[in-house]
Design goal:
The chain is mainly alpha-helical and 307 residues long. It folds into 2 domains: 1-59, no CATH class; 66-292, no CATH class. The protein contains 13 helices and no strands. It has helices at residues 3-6, 15-31, 36-55, 67-83, 88-95, 102-110, 128-139, 142-149, 157-175, 187-193, 208-241, 246-263, 273-301. Helix 3 (36-55) packs across helix 6 and helix 4 (67-83) runs antiparallel to helix 11.
């Protein structure tokens, strides 16, 4: 059996290149838990193959979405902040991270609806979450429970350090309100603004929204909120459109996004490659689910030929 026979694809122009993109996407999903370098290599290969399929005449199938203008707005604010930064070269270098958003397009075009790229729980297994919580609370070691309780303890050293760091961020934003200080590592800047009660140092501000405000000012923060709202909208649309096995995939994608938001209240998760790659993959799969659902609806609604 030839490889083209067991890789789901499309006939017509660009079909071969699309299959290469699908293979790259599958390799990316397999490599994601183990190696960012291999993940990025698979992403680049997939995007090149997807571009080749477009040049050979294949039209993109992903639905229209606010994600694309939101992503462009985010890129524009990062570039503008870098141009105005005191360290423009380093800042522009960090802007490269946004190229990973290409994974949204790659997954949206090459996932083919229900390719089993991720192992996910179906909605019928929702009851396992509260059950697991009860088991953990009842049988977990005391030190684990103490660690869990420390999350809301304002006197815990890590929490005190974050609160002190966020006061420093407030002072920075007051001096650079519109476009921020740039996208470079911020450790040296933090040392100039830190308060005496700091408990640790970092090159980022341990909160996605605070980090965006410091790096790119209120303009970049607004673009980031726009992007998050667009992402949430597409995940919701994907969840509504999903049927059969794709319902579990859509639910898992929504959970990944929630994890980005919740974790991002205490860390800069948008700057963590492992986190954002999972998020972009979830968004792309949501677009693929919508595309597949739209195609199925079109086939059902299409007029039948007269007999």
């Amino acid at each position: 059996m030839r490889w083209a026979e067991w890789i789901p694809g499309e006939d017509g122009p660009g079909g071969g290149a699309l299959r290469v993109a699908q293979l790259a996407l599958l390799a990316l999903a397999l490599c994601l838990p183990f190696s960012i370098a291999l993940t990025e290599g698979a992403l680049i290969l997939g995007l090149v193959a997807l571009g080749a399929s477009r040049l050979r005449g294949r039209r993109f199938r992903s639905p229209r979405t606010w994600l694309w203008p939101a992503s462009l707005a985010l890129l524009a604010t990062w570039l503008l902040s870098s141009a105005l930064s005191a360290e423009p070269a380093d800042s522009f270098f960090h802007v490269r991270k946004l190229y990973a958003m290409g994974l949204i397009l790659l997954a949206g075009e090459a996932a083919a609806g229900a390719i089993p790229l991720l192992l996910v729980l179906t909605p019928r297994a929702w009851w396992t979450l509260p059950l697991a919580t009860i088991v953990v609370v009842r049988f977990a070691p005391a030190r684990w429970l103490a660690r869990l309780a420390s999350i809301v303890d304002p006197n815990e050293p890590g929490n005190r350090g974050r609160l002190s760091m966020w006061r420093s961020a407030r002072d920075i934003v007051r001096e650079h309100p519109l476009f921020g200080v740039g996208c470079q590592d911020l450790l040296a800047l933090y040392r100039r603004y830190r308060y005496p009660d700091f408990t640790f140092e970092s090159g980022h501000f341990h909160n996605n929204f605070v980090q965006m405000a410091v790096m790119t000012g209120v303009t970049g923060l607004a673009a980031f909120v726009f992007w998050l709202a667009s992402a949430a909208r597409e995940l919701a649309r994907g969840t509504r459109a999903a049927t059969g096995p794709d319902r579990g995939l859509a639910a898992a994608g929504a959970a990944v996004f929630v994890a980005l938001l919740v974790g991002g209240m205490f860390d800069y998760t948008f700057g963590d490659a492992e986190v954002v790659y999972h998020t972009y993959l979830a968004l792309g799969l949501s677009l693929a689910i919508q595309s597949a659902a739209s195609g199925a609806t079109s086939k059902v609604d299409a007029p039948r030929p007269a007999v």
